[in-house]
Amino acid sequence: MRLLVVEDNDRMAALIADGLQRRGFVCDVALNLAQADDAMAGAQYDAIVLDLGLPDGDGIDWLADHRKYHQMPPAIIQTARGALEDRITGLDAGADDYVVKPVEVDELAARIRALLRRPGVRTQPIIEVGTLRFDTANRSASIADRNVDLSRREADLLELLMRRAGTVVHRDVIENALYSFNDPVTPNAVEAAISRLRRKLDEAALPDMLHTVRGVGYMLKDIPA
Amino acid sequence: MTQRRSVSRRLRRGLGIIGLIGTVLLLAAVAFFYSFTFTHLDPQAAMMRAIKEMLEHVALPLIVLLVPVTIMVLRVIRQAFVPLAEAAAEIEAARGHERGFRIDASQMPAEAVPFTEAVNDLLTRLDESAMRQEAFAADVAHELRTPLALLSLELDRLDHDDAVRLKKDVAAMRRLIDQLMLLAQIDADAAAQIAPEPTSLADVASDVVGSIAPVIIAEGKMISLDTDEPALIVNARREAVAAALRNLIENATRVTPVGGTIQVRVGPDATLAVRDEGPGLTPDRLRDLVQRHRRADHASKTGAGLGLAIVERIMAAHGGRLTTDPATRELALRFPEP
Question: Which UniProt keywords apply (chain A) (predicted)?
Answer without folding.
Answer: DNA-binding, Phosphoprotein
